[in-house]
Specification:
By secondary structure, this protein is mainly alpha-helical. The protein has 17 helices and four strands. The strands form two sheets. A two-stranded antiparallel ribbon has the order 1-2. It has a two-stranded antiparallel ribbon with strand order 3-4. Strand 1 and strand 2 form a beta hairpin. Helix 7 crosses helix 8.
């Protein structure tokens, strides 16, 4: 895309697609990067086949892998998360914030409403539905139960020092810990990579692919094997990060359908759901970005807003409204301690929750980052960072305060214990069950899970295809069909190979190497911004 106004492009002889292999088979065509596509695709196919063949051995292996990574490298993930927040704040507050993506006179391609809808639906959708009730409840219950020690080591899952026996303090700490996992830090992870991709594509004239961000560090070598490795890591991280979310979505939709209609719950139902929803996602892929993802994202935002408003009105309204502000205050109060990577006594919480989350967000960052980059042309860097950090963060605080706050209020004020005793995927429906029109709202919740599932799968296949096609944004549709199909197959393989534990293990293991990639991208981003003219 031609820049508008002044930019400082990078002079390179590289042409987009010069390393691609073009194949035509009848009416179908392929335009793929000869190394990135081949290695990524073969790796994914081998993983699916081996996991399905050895699924009995896969569960203990995945469980051990997740435990080792989070217990030994929690300090690394937490430190990296803090660095991404500081980089975003530093860039936004500095004169670099005046740089405009696409040139000094570029104008936005999408309205604020369309922009926010797409980045929010792609970035957080299924996770908010799954954890909106279950995570605040989990942290509240563990905090209320206090600490427990065995052989000099804490065995409880409470954040920080817990709040034994104090319901108000436990609720406050539980909401602060939840917001910590869904607000500034994850969106800073997305923002750093999205900003780099947008800058080097729209301003520097490089392909919209992960390797382009590293041109200031690697120079022309970025088009060789160092760049191939970066793009392959991005493809695998995106695929397994998405598979984790798709697995969570399938388990929650399965639980909801069992709860409402008595459909059998279990692995078979989850696999059937993955197949059906992947098929619908394929239709969205064929419809294209504006007709598919954009329209579905806006529909989902309306449905999510209506469900949220309904719970605010019929739930404990005063407690929800006051809780939103008190939860924000509690989050800011506990933020330094929650983000501390060293000397933590709450190892189960910092390793089992926070380290996993940061690895999961990082594995999602190529997907969400490239998607946000594609729809953010025309924004200033300051506008971009403030919007990507604060608007979705505030929406996540509101969502958690409404759904999590309502569930905690049901336990504390009404003695409704069924919501705490239900399985994690079922807690949202159990919370809605004691509110008016429970059948209708629960069905809407299932629709939300399904549509978030579809938009994530569609957006993810779009992003993976761009990377595997050497930066071509108009590659043949059959390639996106291939990646969309294999997202579903990876999710199925992981469900059969150990369920939630295996899903989390692959998100963490692919997030680890990509954390190093992201940290290096921060340096490249600042070097790129410094050289740009400012509006």
């Amino acid at each position: 895309m031609i820049p508008s106004g002044e930019v400082n492009p990078i002079d390179t002889d590289y042409q987009v697609g010069q390393d691609n292999v073009v194949v035509n088979v009848g009416p179908f065509g392929l335009d793929i990067h000869n190394r990135v596509f081949a290695i990524s695709a073969l790796s994914v196919i081998a993983f699916v086949v081996l996991t399905l063949i050895f699924h009995d051995q896969a569960e203990p292996m995945f469980k051990g892998l997740r435990g080792w990574l989070t217990s030994n490298l929690d300090w690394f993930f937490l430190s990296a998360g803090n660095i991404f927040v500081l980089v975003c704040l530093g860039v936004a507050l500095s004169p670099l914030g005046r740089v405009r993506l696409g040139g000094t006179e570029a104008t936005p391609d999408y309205s604020y409403l369309g922009w926010f809808s797409m980045l929010f639906a792609a970035g957080m959708g299924i996770g908010l539905m799954f954890f909106g009730v279950s995570e605040p409840l989990s942290h509240f219950a563990s905090s209320l139960g206090g600490t427990s020690v065995a052989d000099g080591v804490r065995t409880d899952w409470a954040p920080l020092g817990a709040a034994a026996g104090d319901q108000a303090a436990a609720a406050s700490l539980g909401m602060a810990a939840t917001i910590f996992h869904w607000a500034l830090h994850p969106w800073a992870i997305y923002a750093v990579l999205a900003l780099g991709l947008a800058l080097f594509s729209f301003n520097k004239g490089l392909p919209l692919t992960m390797r382009s961000v590293f041109y200031p560090l690697l120079g022309e070598r970025v088009w060789g094997w160092p760049g191939h490795v970066i793009d392959i890591l991005a493809v695998l991280a995106t695929l397994f990060g998405l598979a984790t979310s798709l697995g969570l979505g399938a388990s929650q939709a399965s639980s909801g359908l069992n709860y409402l209609f008595g459909l059998p719950e279990g692995t078979t139902t989850q696999i059937v759901l993955v197949v059906i929803i992947t098929a619908i996602a394929l239709m969205s892929v064929l419809a294209g970005l504006d007709a598919g993802v954009k329209r579905l994202s806006e529909i989902n935002m309306v449905l999510a807003a209506l469900l949220l408003l309904f719970v605010v009105i019929v739930g404990p309204t005063l407690a929800i409204v006051s809780g939103f502000f008190s939860n924000m205050g509690s989050y800011l109060t506990h933020l330094p301690a929650l983000s501390n990577p060293f000397g933590r006594e709450d190892a189960n919480f910092s390793q089992g929750w926070t380290a996993f989350y940061w690895a999961w967000w990082i594995s999602w960052s190529p997907f969400v980052g490239m998607f946000i980059a594609r729809v953010s042309r025309g924004r200033s860097v300051r506008e971009f960072i403030v919007s990507v950090l604060l608007v979705p963060s505030m929406a996540c605080v509101l969502w958690m305060s409404v759904f999590g706050g309502t569930a905690i209020s049901q336990v504390v004020n009404d003695g409704y214990l069924a919501v705490t005793e239900a399985a994690l995927p079922l807690q949202l429906f159990t919370m809605l069950d004691v509110l008016p029109l429970a059948q209708i709202t629960s069905f809407i919740a299932i629709i939300l899970v399904v549509v978030f599932f579809i938009t994530s799968s569609d957006s993810g296949s779009l992003v993976i295809d761009v990377i595997a096609a050497g930066g071509k944004v108009d590659a043949p549709t059959p390639q996106r069909v291939f990646w969309c199909t294999f997202e579903g197959l990876v999710a199925i393989a992981l469900i059969l190979g150990g369920g939630l534990v295996s899903l989390q293990a692959m998100a963490v293991s692919t997030g680890l190497p990509f954390t190093l990639v992201l940290l290096m991208s921060c340096v490249a981003l600042i070097k790129g911004l410094v050289s740009e003219p400012r509006a």
